[in-house]
Design brief:
222 residues; alpha+beta; 2 domains; 5 helices; 29% helix; globular
């Protein structure tokens, strides 16, 4: 649960990955964000879901991929990963714990990966939210022409500061309500609701609705 910004795309020119990394590092430095450069090759088995839109069949593929780029760390948010594979695609691979897998074809000695989306949780951090969107703006204009961005608050499209503040405020109240039954009860009673009995606290990390298919989940290996 929270406010997230997602992004995807391919760099216009693979030879400019280093230039993009340098720009991102300078941008982060201007706001005193920490950064981490990475250049790694992952090897193992890639779990791929069936995608009718992309014309891809699900299954398990032998996998070896070099990914390089930079992580940016705004204050009190998750890190912004700008990682590219050899074809210039914004890419993020996550290792799947063996405990999440099942099926007769499972190899307990292998390392399994999924290609997860690029997104960053920014709940409650309005200034970091705005600066991440500005960063993505420049990346789209200078390096990644086909960059696509999804913003839970809609700020990427409307750029309305009042709406952004309201969205973060509403989410902060919801998080507090989930973790603090007393606060939730007082708030509901103040709005005219009659509450009988005690409210049960919920883990604010739990989603309010079932995850979409693209979210990370348990995988079955055939």
């Amino acid at each position: 649960m929270g406010i997230c910004i997602g992004y995807s795309g391919n760099i216009d020119d693979v030879s400019r990955i280093d230039a993009l990394i340098e720009f991102a590092r300078d941008y982060a430095s201007a706001f005193h964000w920490k950064t981490l450069l990475t250049d790694e090759t992952s090897c193992g088995l890639l779990l791929r879901r069936t995608s009718k839109k992309k014309g891809e069949k699900g299954g398990v593929l032998l996998f070896e991929e070099r990914v390089r780029g930079i992580y940016l760390q705004p204050p009190n948010t998750e890190s912004v990963a700008l990682l590219f594979n050899t074809k210039g695609k914004l890419t993020h691979y996550s290792e799947v714990p063996i405990q999440m897998l099942s099926g007769p074809g499972l190899d307990p000695t292998a390392t399994y990966f999924v290609e997860s989306g690029n997104w960053v949780k920014v709940t409650g951090e309005v200034e970091s939210h705005k600066r991440i969107v500005k960063l993505l703006d420049v990346l789209k204009s200078k390096f990644i022409g086909n960059l696509k961005v999804s913003d839970d608050t809609g700020y990427w499209k409307h750029r309305n500061n009042s709406k952004l503040l309201m969205a973060h405020g509403q989410m902060s109240i919801m998080v507090r309500m989930l973790g603090n039954p007393g606060f939730a009860k007082r708030l509901l009673e103040a709005s005219g609701e009659k509450i009988e009995g005690e409210l049960i606290p919920l883990d604010p990390k739990l989603p309010l609705k079932p995850p979409k298919p693209r979210k990370r989940a348990a995988h079955r290996v055939n």
